[in-house]
Design goal:
The protein is α/β, with parallel strands linked by helices. It has 12 helices and 21 strands. A hairpin with a 2-residue loop joins strand 2 and strand 3. The structure holds ligand LLP. Ligand LLP is lined by residues 68, 71, 89, 112, 172, 209, 212-213, 247-250, 286-290, 325, 383.
Amino acid sequence: MSQQLPTPAGTPHFHYQEGTLFAEGVSLETLARELGTPLYVYSRAALKAAWQSYQDAINGHNVLVCYGMKANSNLAVLNEFAKLGSGFDIVSGGELARALKAGAQAGKIVFSGVGKQDWEIEAALEANIKCFNVESVAELERISEIASRLGKTAPVSLRVNPDVDAKTHPYISTGLKENKFGIEINTAPAAYQKAVSLPGIKIVGVDCHIGSQITEVSPYLDALDKLLNLLDLLALQGVQIEHLDIGGGLGIRYTDEIPLNPKELLDPVLAKLEQRGFSHLQLVLEPGRSLVGNAGVLLTRVQYLKHAEARNFAIVDAAMTDLMRPALYDAYHGLLAVKPRNETGALYDIVGPVCESADWLAKQREIAVQQDDILALESAGAYAFVMASQYNTRPRAAEVMVDGDQFHIIRQREKLEDLFEGEQILP
Ligand code: LLP
């Protein structure tokens, strides 16, 4: 009798084959048993397919994709995108070092973030990055000073806060005037004037990023209208720019969302640029989640079942330390049994071993589960491993990249000694 198998929410690269969940040609049951759990597994084909969906939408236009690498900064992932021709959106000196180590071209790196420190600005100037996305006048002055001291010219865009509602979770909405990000759009013309007057600064662009996990095109178009009005003003002021950066933010499917694909975003954006006479500008995008989010799963093993009066708990070996999104944002990640049981399920909360009530991964999910089963949390390619911690002195998970019927360990599981290596007992 054929069994009814669940449907993975993510990409077709994760699918059931003879009753077992596979990533491409590799059984996740085998991977989990061989390499241990918790284990992050990514699909190389899924990364490439996501990249291709942007290329299809770009279709020869002058668009540079700068992968928002905070979403997943494993060197193997970065190297994959670098080889495909991607640029990178970085937010720290650490990300700069990672990107360069992974083979990024400095000339395709944009540097965002509200709190750039001197050493980070220096390193980015020495590397000759494409552009600093500057978030305040104070930062502009700091960059001018440092560039002048080093005898360099800093290419800058001002990150403008267009005050639009991205209609997403408040923690990941960044384009409202209450947010700490960017320069208020009303004051942007004056900030550009200031930039013109400062030594060591070359204006190259205008930038914005309105939020993350956006599933509608209207917030983007509202922001774009405001940016294009600003561009008109800047043209009147004689300020020349080369590129317009509209940030990242495209959402993915976690459960039943219907995300926009890159073409649904780019078609109207490119049309508007054309209409308003700005089609000569390079368009820069900073997608993170939509390039990697559904290219990964987190595998975890069931340690114990506990049937309390109010709840059934499956206590697993992954925790909020491995996947923080549920604890932090109340986020939903799909849950699949790697080898689904042909039994009637029950409602379970999937929880970790950490001593916090917030340590849950999924709540009230119907699943047939037994001790020692392997479960997969879906959509764990973005903002997952990168947000892991070592709380409770837990080693961070290993990461594996599947490629066809092969797999490669792209990050070793941390060892216990790694966890206290830099610590010292008092004399
Ligand atoms: N550019 C800038 C300036 C950003 O701040 C971000 C994300 C991106 C690009 C990439 O956005 P994406 O395409 O991935 O939406 N930890 C949260 C998401 C935080 C996003 C922060 N900024 C989460 O787990 O949902």
